[in-house]
Amino acid sequence: MIPLLVIIGIIVVLGAVIVGAYNGLVRLRNQVNEAWAQVDVQLKRRFDLIPNLVETVKGYMDHERETLEAVTQARAAVAGAGDGSLGDRAEAEGMLGMALGRLFAVAESYPDLKASQNFLALQEELTSTENKIGFARQYYNQAVMTFNNKVEMFPSNIIAGMFNFTKREFFELKEPEQREAPQVSFDG
């Protein structure tokens, strides 16, 4: 009778460990998904602000079409990368950030544009959105790290393998120039 109780006890404990590890993996996977959704919300917000910014700037920057086209093309690349891999999305988002940085740098040469309340409001909105994107990316990467640790660490790695939990990709910029801040000059 005692050996049977020991075996039943071991099965119950083992079952509890498996259920706990599985539920922990599910919770962390959902946290990663929620974190990515937060990044996506902020990226969409920036994406929606850009046409208003470009239209506002067009009237002032007649001979800066190249800069405006770069922003428009980068925005289109983001739209095209929407369903691609996280790396493709990060690269497109980085290029859009660089194009916006160049746009704001060029805008410094246009005093009337810099004084426009509409431009200033849009610039402030985009700056705020960029900050929110940065925080959302940081939260996402933290959630990915926690999830990836759980997927790789013993004993949860056994459960992860059994139920096809796989590591997630970090949101990181691939191109070194995307890490550099755009140069802004107040001369002129």
Structural topology:
Layout: H1 2-58, H2 65-80, H3 86-107, H4 111-115, H5 117-152, H6 156-162
Helix pairs in contact: 1-2, 1-5, 2-3
User: For the CA atoms, what is the radius of gyration?
Assistant: 24 Å
Oligomer: single chain
Name of the CATH homologous superfamily: LemA-like domain
**Uncertain parts:** 181-188
Instruction: State the total count of DSSP E strands.
Output: 0
- Give the distance, in angstroms, between the N- and C-terminal Cα atoms: 92 Å
Number of domains: 1
CATH topology (level 3) name: de novo design (two linked rop proteins)
Shape, principal axes of CA atoms: rod-shaped
Q: β content, as a range? A: under 5%
- Roughly what percent helix? over 70%
Task: Supply the key terms.
single chain, 188 residues, de novo design (two linked rop proteins), 76% helix, disordered C terminus
What report would you give on this structure?
With 188 residues, the chain is mainly alpha-helical. It has one domain: Up-down Bundle (de novo design (two linked rop proteins)). It is 76% helix and 0% strand. It has 6 helices and no strands. It has helices spanning 2-58, 65-80, 86-107, 111-115, 117-152, 156-162. Helix 1 runs antiparallel to helix 2. 24% of the residues are buried.
How would you briefly describe this protein structure?
With 188 residues, this protein is mainly α.
